[in-house]
Design brief:
338 residues; alpha/beta; Rossmann fold; 2 domains; four-stranded parallel sheet
């Protein structure tokens, strides 16, 4: 009996925290037309002429802060762990491969490994809970481009979103319980940011996104593929699991780039607002990621914590990501078999 193939895909990481490797990673990442969705000539001038040369050394210093001598990149380490543990749970009837959208291991090499093992089908799971054209969409497009050139194409299916996955929600909630959420003045659900133009492109009606008041606060058919609406829904489900009332938490967005409008409120602005209200302790979730990485271990743990303290606060506490939690691996197994 032929085996079933599973392809897990995460965003990517430099091969090392050296400036050259970080520049190589940034170049591939930011030259993706789905990530910076502007005309090619403009994107090339921006990325290769400004961002990569100047941001490379700064980003390399940050990567060194989260890099481990034993395990290397935390994102790659936990992604490998997830792949290995999922393979153990699924057993010999499945073949699980891991890829990164940018850098190594490549999607092409992982798909080739599945092809060589003659799997009967391939289920692609981009490891981004909320759908976005710049993440999940980019992965799915890359997979289709590669497989479309094969003489024989196996059955392929995609998990485009799991923002409301019960297992994922429970792990985030359980990770938070050990910090006693009631002991914090406010809770932040900080998601990776996106330009507003990318949100409006996901609105097939052309009449809802950023045109209806509080368009993301209610999850419905019009915004079902909207990254922001899915993010709000993830936050609502985690909060409900923990009994956190709506006035006790804020959904916000980090990691913006350039001068065009990005989805608000920005996490930095929320930190300032909470400090002005007298908040001293903030609990922060980052449910856009299934593994701790630069955006959580440095941006939240280091930068936001220092920023909040400078504003008069005392503590920004990160709730750990899913990482290699057995319950998360069980949730992945259900996705594969569902």
């Amino acid at each position: 009996m032929r085996k079933q193939g599973v392809l897990l895909v995460n965003l990517g990481t430099p091969d090392s925290p050296s400036v050259s490797d970080v520049r190589k990673y940034l170049d591939e990442f930011l030259m993706d037309e789905r990530v910076i969705d502007i005309p090619t000539i403009n994107r090339t001038l921006l990325v290769k002429g400004i961002i990569v040369p100047f941001r490379g050394p700064k980003s390399a210093k940050i990567y060194k802060e989260v890099w481990s001598d034993e395990t290397g990149s935390p994102l790659l380490y936990y992604s490998i762990r997830q792949k290995e543990l999922l393979q153990e749970r699924l057993g010999n009837d499945y073949v699980v491969e891991l890829a990164m959208r940018y850098q190594s291991p490549s999607i092409e090499s992982a798909l080739l490994a599945l092809k060589r093992k003659q799997v009967a089908s391939i289920k692609v799971i981009p490891l981004f809970p909320q759908y976005a054209s710049a993440s999940t969409g980019s992965v799915n497009q890359k997979v289709m481009e590669i497989v479309s050139k094969w003489p024989t194409i196996p059955d392929i299916s995609f998990i485009s979103s799991f923002h409301d996955n019960e297992g994922m929600i429970e792990v985030f909630a359980e990770n938070a319980r050990k910090y006693n959420p009631d002991s914090f003045d406010h809770v932040l659900f900080s998601f990776h940011g996106l330009p507003e133009r990318q949100l409006t492109k996901a609105d097939d009606t052309g009449k809802y996104c950023l045109k209806v008041a509080d368009c993301c606060s209610r999850f419905n058919d019009a915004n079902r593929m909207c990254y922001s609406a899915q993010s709000h829904d993830t936050a609502r489900l985690i909060a409900a699991k923990l009994g956190i009332s709506r006035d006790k938490y804020t959904v916000c967005f980090q990691s913006r780039l350039g001068n065009s409008p990005w989805k608000k409120p920005y996490t930095s602005d929320v930190l300032k607002e909470q400090a002005e209200k007298g908040a001293k302790r903030l609990l922060v979730f980052s449910p856009a990621f299934v593994a701790d990485c630069l955006e959580t271990l440095y941006e939240i743990v280091e930068e936001y914590n220092e920023e909040f303290k400078a504003l008069g606060g005392e503590k920004v506490q990160l709730v750990e990501s899913l990482n290699d939690d057995p319950r998360w691996i069980a949730a992945l197994e259900k996705m594969v078999k569902g």
